[in-house]
């Protein structure tokens, strides 16, 4: 399907539309998205947060697993993962990879939208997971996100942790960078309700856009309020470009190195922790 990247589809259900797009992206995801230099750095920081939350032998679930980059890494470390994604084609990629690495017994896959994560309770039972996680804006693309926290709470045991990264409503780098380029609309685009985000930077799938909502750290904390306590807040890509500016990052990589070291030091310090392209939040189930 070809769509104008400024317009959203009017016919398909948003979940069906997202599923179709990510099914098309699945075969090229690791080359297209997984090799993005900024994406690699973001995943490294997120994985460090996962390492703090989970231990070998834990049983966890993932919302929006893609081709299983995080799930497979945890499985190699001895964590059992139920990897879920709205795209069956993405799930098929995870199955093939897990089988090739001989870790299929530690990676089980289910095709589920984020809003339906609670269905795992029917199969695995109430409070049957030691924790869960979601990375790279999968929850920003869920139009029924309000249903997610209660479902997560029903799956995670008491004191278990849920680690998630959200695309933030305020990106310090974008505000400064695009304002300097005299593009204020771009600088403050995250303040709008819904923004069309392409599922890929490369044609033809760069024309395939998904409705994306941005959330501040306070927004997400409010969503999980009542069932969880907040453990940690960490900004991601505060002083560094977001993933759509990876070409800029690659071109001027030496110039960004000092900012990268500085961000490593300040990313958990308020208010900088809430000014990143993404925000990583770790919650503990009450």
What does this entry look like structurally?
- With 286 residues, this protein is an alpha/beta fold.
- It has one domain (14-285): Vaccinia Virus protein VP39 (Rossmann fold).
- Helices cover 38% and strands 21% of the residues.
- The protein has twelve helices and nine strands.
- It has helices at 14-25, 29-32, 37-53, 69-76, 88-101, 120-124, 148-155, 172-180, 184-187, 217-223, 246-251, 253-266; strands at residues 59-63, 80-85, 107-111, 129-134, 156-167, 195-198, 209-212, 228-236, 278-285.
- The strands form two sheets. It has a seven-stranded mixed sheet, sandwiched between helices.
- Helix 4 links the parallel strand 1 and strand 2.
- It is globular.
- 42% of the residues are buried.
- Mean pLDDT is 94; it is low at 1-6.
Give the helix level as a range of percent: 25-40%
Largest sheet: 7 strands, mixed
CATH superfamily: Vaccinia Virus protein VP39
Strand content: 15-25%
CATH class: Alpha Beta
Low-confidence stretches: 1-6
Order of helices and strands: HHHEHEHEHEHEHHEEHEHHE
Number of strands: 9
Number of helices: 12
Shape: globular
Distance between the termini: 44 Å
What CATH architecture would you give? 3-Layer(aba) Sandwich
Q: Structural class of the helix and strand makeup?
A: alpha/beta
The count of domains is 1
Radius of gyration: 18 Å
How would you write the strand order of the largest sheet? 3-2-1-4-5-9-8
Kindly report the CATH topology: Rossmann fold
| Average predicted local confidence, pLDDT | 94
């Amino acid at each position: 399907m070809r769509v104008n990247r400024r317009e959203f589809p009017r016919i398909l259900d948003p979940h069906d539309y997202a599923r179709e797009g990510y099914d098309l992206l699945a075969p090229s995801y690791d080359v297209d998205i997984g090799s993005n230099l900024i994406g690699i750095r973001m995943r490294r920081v997120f994985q460090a947060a996962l390492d703090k939350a989970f231990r070998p032998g834990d049983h966890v679930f993932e919302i929006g697993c893609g081709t299983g980059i995080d799930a497979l890494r945890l499985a190699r470390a001895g964590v059992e993962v139920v990897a879920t994604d709205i795209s069956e084609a993405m799930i098929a990629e995870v199955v093939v990879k897990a089988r090739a690495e001989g870790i299929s017994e530690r990676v089980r896959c289910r095709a589920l939208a984020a809003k339906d994560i609670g269905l795992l309770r029917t199969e695995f039972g109430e409070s049957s997971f030691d924790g869960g996680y979601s990375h790279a804006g999968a929850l920003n693309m869920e139009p029924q996100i309000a249903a997610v926290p209660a479902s997560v709470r029903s799956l995670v045991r008491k004191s278990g942790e849920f680690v998630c990264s959200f695309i933030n409503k305020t990106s310090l780098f974008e505000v400064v960078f695009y304002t300097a380029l005299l593009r204020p609309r771009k600088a403050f685009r995250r303040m709008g309700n819904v923004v069309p985000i392409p599922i890929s930077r490369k044609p033809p799938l760069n024309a395939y856009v998904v409705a994306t909502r941005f959330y501040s750290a306070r927004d997400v904390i409010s969503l999980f309020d009542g069932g969880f306590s907040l453990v940690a807040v960490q900004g991601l890509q505060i002083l560094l470009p977001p993933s759509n500016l990876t070409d800029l990052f690659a071109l001027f990589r030496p110039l960004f190195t000092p900012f990268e070291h500085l961000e490593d030091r300040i990313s958990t310090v308020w208010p900088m922790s809430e000014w990143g392209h993404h925000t990583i939040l770790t919650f503990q189930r009450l």
